[in-house]
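Budget justification aside, the reviewers requested a transparent look at the raw inputs and outputs of the sequence design task funded under Objective 1. We therefore reproduce one unedited record. The lines immediately below are the structure tokens for a 158-residue chain.
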């Protein structure tokens, strides 16, 4: 699960840096830039809704990682409290033997565990994005703008 998270974050940063490099390197015939990167970073800081395409493009790379993390967390929740695992397994097994009410109870408990994990994942994502008025988002913009400054795509603000 941690390796998936690391790879997902690596792809996220590689895609972001690659997009900045591409926007700086590829030019129109009159040698004007494909996109005003300084304006893009300014908009991301003050009017992120105007540049939602960037957030969707980069955010979509993390979606599979979040789904894998949810599966891993579900597995961890079902594995570590052994009594819960045995109870759900027993109820589902009894349902397979023809005791429908017990099987349905097992399905309900398993559904509650899965729904709880997905709710927890959603809450974590919300807190990461909204914590301290977008603290993480601000730092991500700073990181990518720093990369753009290093490669000379934007000027260094005084």
């Amino acid at each position: 699960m941690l390796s998936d998270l690391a790879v997902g974050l690596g792809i996220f940063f590689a895609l972001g840096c690659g997009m900045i490099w591409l926007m700086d390197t590829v030019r129109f015939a009159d040698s004007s830039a494909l996109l005003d990167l300084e304006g893009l970073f300014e908009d991301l800081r003050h009017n992120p809704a105007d540049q939602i395409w960037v957030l969707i493009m980069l955010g979509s790379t993390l979606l599979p990682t979040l789904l894998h993390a949810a599966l891993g967390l579900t597995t961890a929740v079902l594995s570590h409290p052994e009594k819960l695992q045995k109870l759900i397994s027993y109820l589902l097994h009894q349902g397979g033997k023809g005791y429908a009410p017990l099987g349905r109870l097992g399905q309900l408990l398993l559904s509650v565990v899965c729904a709880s994990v997905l709710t927890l994942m959603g809450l974590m994502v919300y807190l990461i994005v909204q914590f301290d008025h977008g603290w993480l988002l601000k730092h991500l913009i700073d990181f990518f703008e720093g990369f753009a400054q290093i490669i000379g795509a934007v000027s260094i603000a005084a």
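The chain has a mean pLDDT of 85. Residues 27 and 33 are 5 Å apart (CA to CA). Computational costs for records of this kind are itemized in the attached budget.
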